[in-house]
Write a structure and sequence with these properties.
This protein is of the alpha+beta class. It has 16 helices and 13 strands. The termini are far apart.
Length: about 425
């Protein structure tokens, strides 16, 4: 059940055309932040169209029915508003921030952008060139190279195996017709969540949303969001890219759980314990005590499908072999000992403290609740997540570590790295 506090602050309704609307009123700040989510991320692309969602996110604000890219930019700027788009593996997001009194005017503009983008050929070709430059640039960055090759071996043919940017060949072959088809297929009212936080009355927000989107009819075609993706099989291996760099990048990858899994909370805690901040286990042991790491961290993103649990380190080339061995041992310790009572409590305090700090601004609040809704978790997940974190025990950490954190995929990038002198 939703807590009484949450019920009093989050207004949720579904419009007649199935748009889900969330509003959290904040009378203390003269700003309104709006997040519009569409179930249409890179996971919804075919492999030969990789990068399509990202390209769409770059060009959707560059022209719509009756307005050019310049017209849109001038309107947004004249209102002192902020308008951004973002492509994610699991969803598309349009973010809007404006003064409260300008909410109706800016929302009418956003309605046109979402419903009738023109995808002008000149704009599409320009953005494709910029994306291709970005892809080439990332191939020169050791961290991105290590992460890219790790994703590919972990996920193979699953969309999570590719960068959100796509690949050279797929981006080059994208056409305006691909954008129109993808937009027509997924940008529809029964596939959208609008999350708002700020100085606005929920009923006024609903009135404006209905005026802008109320006549947007659900298409006759069936909406298919049940993705038939290839199964992710675990087959750990090593990938190496020799590169003339000042440091070696070492990554260990483990296939974790999706956000819907009962194992999700324990994995989040283990990631926090291992590599979240300067008080984390890896930072203290490998950097402060042993002097092996320039940088060291762990991350485990929240995903609709099984997410990667990644531990990484930047070290000097001469310490690569030693650093890899020590990092592996630190992860292996979790399966034998789990966390101490003190370490478990510190990790819980850290993750819940950071979670609370991540809901301070209107934009953050709109993001969190809209994200939960588009992922199918519901706004009550806000309270549920905190409760399940508190329930994780030492025994749980050992069980989960043994289940997921065994036999890592290994990704290495650096000087003179070969399988013969490193992966023995």
């Amino acid at each position: 059940m939703i807590s009484s506090q949450l019920e009093s602050t989050i207004y949720r309704t579904t419009l007649s055309n199935k748009i889900v609307l969330l509003v959290r009123a904040n009378p203390n700040c003269n700003i309104v932040a709006t997040k519009i989510f569409v179930r249409a991320g890179s996971s919804y692309e075919s492999r030969d169209k990789a990068g399509l969602t990202h390209l769409l996110s770059e060009v959707i604000t560059k022209g719509c029915e009756g307005l050019s890219s310049l017209n849109i930019a001038e309107q947004v700027e004249s209102l002192g508003a902020s308008l951004r788009t973002h492509a994610h593996s699991d969803y598309f997001l349009l973010s809007l921030k404006n003064i409260a009194r300008d909410f109706p005017e800016i929302l009418y503009l956003v309605g046109k952008i979402l419903r009738s983008p023109t995808f002008a050929k000149s704009e599409v070709e320009l953005e494709k060139r910029l994306i291709l430059e970005n892809i080439r640039s990332q191939k020169e960055q050791p961290f991105n190279v290590a992460l890219d090759q790790l994703r590919k071996v972990m996920y193979c043919h699953h969309p999570y195996g590719l960068s959100i940017l796509g690949e050279d060949i797929s981006v080059k072959n994208l056409k305006n017709t691909d954008l129109f088809y993808f937009h027509q297929q997924y940008f529809r009212p029964d596939n959208i969540v609008i999350s708002i936080s700020g100085q606005i009355d929920p009923h006024h927000a609903k009135t404006v949303i209905e005026e802008v989107f109320g006549d947007w009819q659900i298409p006759n075609t069936e909406l298919s969001t049940a993705l038939n993706l290839s199964k992710i099989s675990v087959f750990p291996r090593q990938v190496i890219t020799p590169q003339d760099t000042h440091q070696s990048i070492i990554m260990l990858g483990y296939l974790g759980a999706a956000v819907y899994s009962p194992d999700y909370a324990a994995l989040k805690l283990l990631s926090t314990y291992l590599g979240n901040g300067i008080s984390s286990r890896l930072f203290l042991e490998l950097r402060e005590k042993q002097g092996l790491a320039y940088e060291v961290s762990a991350f485990y993103p929240t995903r609709m499908f099984p997410a990667s649990f990644i531990v990484y380190m930047g070290t000097s080339p001469e310490n690569t072999e030693k650093a890899l061995s020590r990092m592996q041992k630190e992860v292996e310790l979790l399966s034998r000992n789990g966390l101490s009572i003190a370490s478990l409590q510190i990790s819980k305090n850290k993750i819940l403290g950071q979670y609370a700090l991540g809901k301070q601004t209107n934009a953050q609040i709109a993001q969190v609740y809209g994200w939960y809704e588009i992922m199918g978790l519901g706004i009550d997940f806000d309270q549920l997540f905190q409760e399940v974190i508190l329930r994780v025990s030492i025994e749980d950490t050992i069980t989960i570590a043994r289940k997921y954190l065994q036999n890592a995929y290994i990704s290495l990038v650096g000087q003179k790295i070969t399988s013969e002198n490193i992966l023995k």
